[in-house]
Amino acid sequence: MTVSTTRTVTLPPGLVIAPQLPDLLRPVKIRRGVLGFLRGHPTVAIGSALLLCLVLVAIFAPYLGTVDPTALAPAKRTRAPSADFWFGTDMLGRDIYSRVLYGTRVSLTVGLSVAVLASLAGLAVGLVSGFVRWADGILMRFIDGLMSIPPILLAVALMALTRGSVGNVILAITVAEIPRVTRLVRGVVLSLREQPYVDAATASGTRTPMIIMRHILPNTLAPMLVQATYICASAMIVESILSFIGAGTPPTIPSWGNIMAEGRALWQVKPFIVFFPAAFLSVTVLAVNLLGDGLRDALDPRMAKSL
Amino acid sequence: MALLEVENLQTHFRTPDGINRAVDGVSFQVDEGETLAIVGESGCGKSVTSMSLMRLIPEPPGRIAGAVRFQGRDLLQLSEREMRAVRGNDVSMIFQEPMSSLNPVLTVGRQIGETLRMHQGLDKQAAELRAVEMLNLVGIPEPARRVREYPHQLSGGMRQRVMIAMALACNPKLLIADEPTTALDVTIQAQILQLMLDLKRRVGAAIVLITHDLGVVAEIAERVMVMYAGRKVEEAPVARLFRSPRHPYTQGLLGAVPKLGSSLTGAARRLTEIPGQVPSLKKAIEGCAFAGRCALATDLCRQVAPGLEVKGPGHIAACHYAAKEAAAA
Amino acid sequence: MSAPLLQVNDLKKHFPVRSGLFGRRSGSVYAVDGVSFEVDRGETLSLVGESGCGKSTVGRAILRLFDITSGQVVLDGQRIDDLSPGGLRAMRRRVQVVFQDPFSSLNPRMRVRDILAEPIRNFSLAKSSADLEMRVAALMDTVRLPRDALNRRPHEFSGGQRQRIGIARALAAEPDLIVCDEAVSALDVSVKAQIVNLLQDLQQQFGLALLFISHDLAIVEHMTHRVAVMYLGRIVEMAPRQKIFTAPGHPYTKALLSAVPEPGAARNPIILKGDVPSPINPPKGCRFNTRCPFVFDRCKAEEPQLRSAGDGQWVACHLEALPEAPGSAG
Which residues on chain C place their C-beta less than 8 Å from a C-beta of chain A? Predict the structure, then answer.
């Protein structure tokens, strides 16, 4: 604050004026709108930018200088990366660049679908168990049981029961992820039910379904959104693992796990076969996790701590 | 020389929606063995002031400026290492929430002993003996057994006693008590206040008491300083402040608190309201910070911030108009 | 004179304490253990006591936020403790609540307009959407908030303003009784005065009865008609305002009053020993016997009942029953 104030009053003699003190910090630029939000939360910005690129890659894979990812070319097996084959070729001569780009589709599809499906299912179960006391005991013991099996083993077991297809992979991973969401939603619902505004709504005659819709549900969305990003990341990893051990996406569809599985035998001599899909997987998971961390910090900080 | 001299203390914070000038130019001093109360409503900067004295403000996002001279040494100039030797030793602090300020996984004795071993170099046995002695001092029954208990085994009042024991363990010269009784029930608060009065006489430490409760102030402090919007608006000896407050804000505060015995006066009196809200500290305040809520405010107040003026013996206030009353009186 | 607006008879609320793997009930918290009182139309009855004495539980029981363990809650001649959810809904309109914390008592995601419209819609009080709009606007005037604030969300308001919204929501249902559960305790001194004055004005204006739950005795004295002092789930004393503040009968009331620090008053507080015992295992006999300065044998054996001490004052203390009650510090 400088002394540039325009005084319209005359100072009476002997007036005691407070000393002028300096500002200790540079003024803050207040940022508004979506761009302002992104500048204030760089992790969200980086995460969503990376993710947006990957989504574009998945959608426009055919137009990004790729060839048919399943086209065999025995003559051109295990070529190192070059101008013709950017990421090299695998042991059947297929173009790894094309396969990795098409693989993005599988990973993102699985990640997003599992995140959405597991969140919806978990939300439903969590709401029931948070509101219906007798169902709570039964559901929670069942969920406890489900949680005692490592998610990957559970997914492997489920996949063993069915034919390998992307749809089945999604279902298997979803089942394995539901307990996490359920636990979260139940916890949030139980704490929201204790909120005075829910009591006030009850006292003002609001019926239970309306209380859930108006007072509980909207306030569970923020923590669920954050949880969904973590589930998305973990689903993509589980999908790769399943495919890697041959229990996931069928080998006819290029997925990062499949590519890595096929390159495994040649890992020591032709590391690039494994390297590129692994790098894409890491970057994708990183992007989703960055987005999740950023959202957690940006959304209600009190809620975030319960995650 | 005063024990503690604070000069033009400023503590600002950087927040996403502006600079928060939580404390903006506060000066005061505390003599040896004296109790100074800092009162004000939430957001007036009283707690931030106490944290700044101990340098417990994270920098960034905070920034402290001015001088905090303790026994002539400016605490703001010390290195973090030197500061650690001061905290809990020469200057110690009692917080509002005894539960969250005690470590739940260590016994009470361990926590009191820790300070002693760190600052006074006592060995384990000596530290525990002293811990028992301290618990005895703060009136905890069966101190030899309690010293081995964990915080959750104690009631709220007991925990606050433990906090006080911990704060006094190293014979500090200055004790900063931030709302020490706010979280307690009235009858427990009465116990703790009596303990503090008693200890004041026996231990002789100077106390800076932060509180919003004017009743508590009357109970233990000798001098009061009233803060509003990060600034000091009035300071006076306790009895004088309650008898003849000068600043309109202080007058408003005193009028807004109902007093016990109101039923004796018969007719229901309306409480004095201070209209409006505390101004945002995130915008630079021009003129007097209280002008927007003050019945006496004029253009002069809105444009020129009043400085602290002497209104009587040991009595200062920052108001352009209270000055005239004082001159007339 | 007609029947009281609210009658509470021998109200008990025991919360189960569960432990072990299967959550077996291993005991009870005797939060409220046999409380009776009445509130007349337009009257303020204050429930005072320290934390854990059960005063908030009484308020929530009257609001039927949970089922009570035993006893009766009678509103305007009709029992509401055993109503079915359908029958209860109609009665709910008549008893509303204002909570302590102005931050958690409003749904952060709703606009003020929707917060205020909720009870009006629930009880079908508005004839048309124009009527609804008019009522919501009128409520804002009543609690002295600007009408243009209707489209904002709670976080844009200060604590005092939020409390005004909370009061407006309670008024929206056009109740006969408002339970103020520590409604001004969390507010700053200067704002507290504003809200206390507002509540008093509204009581006059609408003839509201208030059940004012508070631990702040000075505020209670300022605005109440009668006071009930609670200790460990029981009422230990009940009396009209002037009586309780000038001639308290129960040793606990005396200690409570003397413990309030007061600017500019020379005091000699009665310092009670120790802490409030746990409501899971309350003391036998008089519940206050562990801390009472005047305790004698009978207090440990027999629980004193509320006895009339004249002028509407009721005291539950064996001392009061003695021929010459000690004229103690008070």
Answer: 60, 63, 65, 89, 92-93, 95-97, 99-101, 104-110, 118-119, 122-123, 166, 169-170, 172-173
Same domain flag for B58 and B25: yes
Task: List the C234-240 sheet strands across, edge first.
Answer: C95-98, C177-181, C209-214, C44-48, C226-231, C234-240, C314-315, C307-308
pLDDT tens string B245-292: 999 999 998 888 888 877 776 555 788 888 888 888 888 888 899 998
Give mean pLDDT in consecutive 10-residue pieces for chain B, a chain of 329 residues: 90 85 92 92 89 88 90 91 88 82 87 86 87 87 88 85 87 90 84 85 88 87 93 93 91 86 68 84 86 89 88 89 55
CA angle C260, C265, C271 (to 5 degrees): 40
CATH number of the domain residue A272 falls in: 1.10.3720.10
Contact predicate B9/B46, CB 8 Å: no
Residues 6+ apart with CB under 8 A from A219: A188, A192, A303, C107, C108, C109
Question: Which residues of chain B have a CB within 8 Å of the CB of C264?
Answer: 218, 239, 242-243
How many other C-beta atoms can be found within 10 angstroms of the C-beta atom of residue C141?
11
* Residue C312 CA: distances (Å) to CA of B191, B225, C39: 32, 44, 13
Q: How many pairs of residues across B and C have Cβ atoms under 8 Å apart? A: 129
> A3 lies in a domain?
no
The answer as to whether B103 is a domain residue is yes
The answer to the question of residue A213 being in a domain is: yes
**What are the chain B neighbours of C210 within 8 Å (beta carbons)?**
none
Is the CB of B186 less than 8 angstroms away from the CB of C269? Answer: no
Angle at CA of residue C122, ends C116 and C123, nearest 5° = 105
Distance CA B249, CA B234 (A): 9
The per-residue DSSP string of A134-202 comes to HHHHHHHHHHHHHHHS-HHHHHHHHHHHS---HHHHHHHHHHHHHHHHHHHHHHHHHHHHTSHHHHHHH
Dihedral, CA atoms, A215, A219, A221, A223, nearest 10 degrees? -150
Tally of domains within chain B: 2
Beta pairing partners, C214: C48
CB contact under 8 A, C269 and B242: no
Domain hosting B68: range is 1-84+176-196+203-257+285-329
Contact call for B187 and C256, based on CB within 8 A:
yes
* Residue C131: Cβ within 10 Å count: 12
Contact C50 B186 (CB under 8 A): yes
Claim to verify: residue B250 and residue B124 sit in the same structural domain: no
In CATH terms, C6-94+175-321 corresponds, of 3.40.50.300, 2.30.42.10, 1.10.357.10, 3.40.1190.20, to 3.40.50.300
Flag residues of chain A having pLDDT under 70.
Answer: 1-7, 300-307
Let me know whether B69 and B191 are in one domain.
Answer: yes
Same-domain pairing of B35 and B67:
yes
Above 0.85 for ipTM, yes or no? yes
Residues B24, B135 within the same domain? no
Number of domains in chain A: 1
Of C74 and A299, the one with more pLDDT? C74
Residue B213 lies in a domain: yes
B partners (3+ CB pairs within 8 A) are A, C
List, in sequence order, every beta strand (DSSP E) within chain C: 6-19, 24-39, 44-48, 70-75, 78-79, 95-98, 177-181, 209-214, 226-231, 234-240, 307-308, 314-315
Domain of A187 in residue numbering reads as 105-304
A46 contact partners, CB below 8 Å, separation of at least 6: A287, A290
Best interface-test mutation with B: which of C197, C202, C222, C236 has the largest number of B CBs within 10 A? C222
pLDDT at site B323: 60
Partner-chain contact C109 A219, CB within 8 Å: yes
In-domain check, residue A292:
yes
